[in-house]
């Protein structure tokens, strides 16, 4: 599920740069409990979050045994969108369920089972006015 912010970033980039010059890099990450999450784009690109879920989506790298509740998940796109979208790089150290707990969200996964983070984002060309300027020193010869 795309967030409105992702679509707004894409539209803004197309308007500023022109459609033929836009490149999108798609990145999908499965981040296990206690691992670091690192979203990074190339020079002149920014992160546009597409989806972020915390749970036990499938057996794989992070979940090796089925103790039931495979498929339980909840969206954490709002948290990662606010932390990462429109930035060149975003990091979270040693992710844990508690990093995504708020008074309004409740995980459908039982508390004693490991969960992981499943994140999908694009790297889109940054609008020209959002790229930090490099300081250059000009020296004049006399």
Automatic annotation (TrEMBL):
CDD domains: Gal_Rha_Lectin (cd22823). PANTHER family: PROTEIN EVA-1. InterPro entries: Lectin_gal-bd_sf. This is SUEL-type lectin domain-containing protein.
């Amino acid at each position: 599920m795309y967030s409105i912010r992702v679509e707004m970033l894409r539209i803004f980039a197309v308007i500023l740069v022109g459609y033929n010059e836009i490149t999108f890099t798609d990145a999908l990450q499965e981040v296990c409990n206690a691992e670091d999450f690192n979203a990074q784009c190339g020079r002149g690109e920014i992160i546009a979050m597409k989806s972020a879920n915390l749970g036990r989506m499938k057996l794989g790298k992070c979940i090796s045994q089925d103790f039931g509740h495979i498929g339980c998940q909840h969206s954490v796109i709002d948290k990662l969108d606010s932390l990462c979208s429109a930035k060149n790089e975003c990091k979270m150290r040693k992710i844990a369920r508690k990093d995504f707990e708020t008074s309004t969200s409740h995980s459908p996964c039982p508390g004693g089972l490991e969960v992981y983070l499943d994140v999908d984002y694009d790297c889109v060309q940054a609008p020209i006015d959002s790229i930090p300027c490099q300081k250059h020193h000009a020296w004049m010869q006399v």
